[in-house]
Design brief:
alpha/beta; DNA polymerase, domain 1; ten-stranded mixed beta sheet; two-stranded antiparallel sheet; 12 strands; 18% strand; elongated; metal-binding; iron-sulfur; iron; rRNA processing; 4 iron, 4 sulfur cluster binding
Length: 365
């Protein structure tokens, strides 16, 4: 019998996050505005500013009655995040932001600009309770779940930055701090707001949204039943339970087989190919036999509905974990492909600005 997994948690902070426009349903927004003496059509007006123009500053919403703007700001637009540090690299193509939330909690997001797209990596939790030993966020523990508003406002802030640059945000990946499926309801609510057309959301295609997980099998199945067409990314990191119990401790609760069964269910329900994330770690999970085993297991479980995304590990300061050398990486790719499974190496950005999730927050702490 498997032993219960020990996840790393810290006590919840007592101060509840303030309610934000993005936390409310359409009817709740109408009701809140009615309490301020404003008609229901104002909710649509405000939504067009927030989702269509990426504005959260009520003073810019000049079609609202001037006498009511401060009341609307106080009721629906509390400041959720204040910028603490921003780092640019890759000739300005990559921007990593460290935010301080209302209660002092730290949050990270990374904006990556490419010639044909702009991708934002967002956080779903402040910290993480999954306790993966090679991950800076996991070693810091979990502070708390983020609210829907705190997740959505990361997107708005990045979209606003790109809009001011004359560009647009096209892709969202839930690969920042935290385990998205451990904050399930808020993440799904955020996904719907990210992908709904203006004025219900930002209008980003569901096919351009990636939701990652370390392998919460029941939540993967639940997500499959949401009838979304987002890409599921499973952070597998090794194909065998023996090593995965150490690298990804939740594996003692949901085995590799259970995770891949759930991933197959998601692929069948959504029609989307599942991405398998694999951080390649020198002398830990980069062996030939593991590459062969990974390819065989994925081909058997998912057939053509899978792609391996190999990630050169971004080491954290003082860590014993290191990236595999280039020749080992190339051989690993070759062996996975030999089993009939597509495998590519992720383009790494921002290594010199502590781009591994959790590094900036850890430095600040």
């Amino acid at each position: 019998m498997s032993q219960p997994v020990k996840l790393q948690f810290t006590p919840n902070r007592p101060q509840m996050p303030p309610k934000h426009f993005a936390d409310l349903t359409a009817q709740q927004r109408i009701d809140a505005l009615a309490d301020l003496g404003l008609s229901k059509f104002r909710a649509d007006q405000i939504a067009r500013h927030y989702y269509g123009r990426y504005e959260a500053d009520i003073s810019t919403m000049t079609d609202l009655p001037e006498a009511k703007r401060q009341e609307v700001a106080d009721a629906l637009f509390p400041e959720l995040m204040s910028p603490l540090r921003t780092h640019d690299t890759d000739d300005g193509e990559t921007t990593k932001s460290l935010w301080r939330l209302h209660d002092g909690t730290l949050l990270e997001s990374v904006l990556m600009r490419y010639p044909e797209r702009a991708t934002l990596c967002i956080s779903s939790q402040a910290g993480c309770g999954m306790n993966c030993p090679f991950c800076a966020t996991g070693q810091g523990g979990l502070d708390r779940n983020l609210t829907t508003g705190e997740i959505v406002d990361q997107v708005r802030a990045a979209a606003k930055m790109l809009h001011d640059e004359g560009s647009r945000l096209s892709n969202i990946v839930f690969m920042g701090m935290g385990e998205p499926l451990a904050n399930y309801k808020r993440v799904v609510s955020a996904v719907r707001q990210i992908t709904a057309p203006v004025p219900e959301g930002f209008g980003i295609s569901q096919r351009n949204v990636v939701v990652s997980t370390v392998g919460l099998a029941p939540a993967i199945r639940r997500l499959a039943d949401e009838d979304l067409s987002v890409t599921l990314a499973v952070s597998l990191h090794t194909p065998d339970d023996e090593l995965r119990d150490t690298l990804v401790p939740i594996n003692t609760r949901y085995s590799v087989e259970e995770v891949l069964d759930a991933a197959r269910y998601y692929a069948d329900r959504s029609g989307r190919r599942v991405s398998i994330e694999y951080a390649l770690i020198r002398d830990i999970n980069d062996h030939d036999f593991r590459a062969d085993m990974l390819g065989r297991k994925l081909h058997r479980a998912l057939g053509s509905k899978v792609h391996v995304n190999l990630i050169p590990l971004n080491p954290t300061p003082g860590s014993k974990w290191d990236a595999s050398p280039k020749e080992r990486q190339d051989e690993f790719v070759r062996r996975v492909r030999a089993q009939g499974v597509p495998c590519t190496v992720r383009d790494t950005k921002g290594q010199e600005i502590a781009a591994a999730c959790g590094q900036l927050a850890a430095e600040e702490k």
